From TrEMBL:
Organism whose genome encodes this protein: Amycolatopsis saalfeldensis
Keywords tagged on the record: 2Fe-2S, Flavoprotein, Iron, Iron-sulfur, Metal-binding, Oxidoreductase
Gene Ontology MF terms: 2 iron, 2 sulfur cluster binding; metal ion binding; oxidoreductase activity
The FAD-binding FR-type domain, residue ranges: 11-112
UniProt-recorded name of the protein: Ferredoxin-NADP reductase
PROSITE patterns, per database record: 2FE2S_FER_1, 2FE2S_FER_2, FAD_FR
Keyword Iron-sulfur appears in the UniProt entry: yes
Amino acid sequence: MSALATELEFDRGFDVVPAAPERLAEGVVRLTLRHPDGAALPAWEPGAHVDLVLGPDLVRQYSLCGDPADRSVLQVAVLREPAGRGGSAHVHGLAGGERLRVRGPRNHFELVPSPRYLFVAGGIGITPLVPMLAAAEAAGAGWRLLYGGRTRASMAFAAELRERYGDRVELVPQDERGPLDLDAALAATPGAAVYCCGPEPLLAAVEQRCAPDLLHVERFTAQPDTGPRDAFEVELAQSGRTLGVPADRSILSVLEESGVPVLSSCREGTCGTCETGVLEGVPDHRDSVLTTAEREAGDVMMICVSRCAGARLILDL
């Protein structure tokens, strides 16, 4: 069996049975997932996420927030978003005991070794950082968490983290203290690896202030696609086929229409499922996953949104 076939087989996922959602904060529930037969669930590391297959056309990505050492469960925390596309409402409406399909885990937000960390969370962006704090603590690293939210009642894990880690956790409810003081936090932790997750304005503010080689971010939403859209060709190295990608189509949609087996999920460049190797050509990156260094290397791309900076790409497909 080819490597791609093996990956596709694995990515069909596995069944889990959720417990009833547990309220963590105002508008936030924790979902604890177990294997139907009590078997061990896949290993994962801090920063990983899973796809929850909530319906035929309802697949959502959620960061894992439990203990990686506990293979008996997977846990995610989900914010109810009234203006969302239905995923969070579905999770909040679960009774417990239903079977769900899970794909992954995958990790595009890995915790790199560092003697010091600054973790910055906005709202539900705390979820991938919770296991990172435990990992940094276990490694003996110095770290600090700056965690903001609309109100104290809306901040999941806030009391638990404060009790466990003390004053290394700075809670900043906006209605009590105003916005996060990013300048002070960065000045107090020079040279630290900075991990940030939260709404786009927070990520943009941190990016403006932090050196790219120190910064690691995870986005929930797609980046605005404002670049030019020209037609180009993709050659599939494994089959030798060449396909045209029109200006108004994505590489992913053209491959799917042509019967090429590829993995995908969000179709917005935020989950990393469709990451594909680039053998020749220059990708025009439009995703929210790859780091600056990975974009400059140009050897992988997210084919659901990214395009070609020239006339032709050769992909490892």
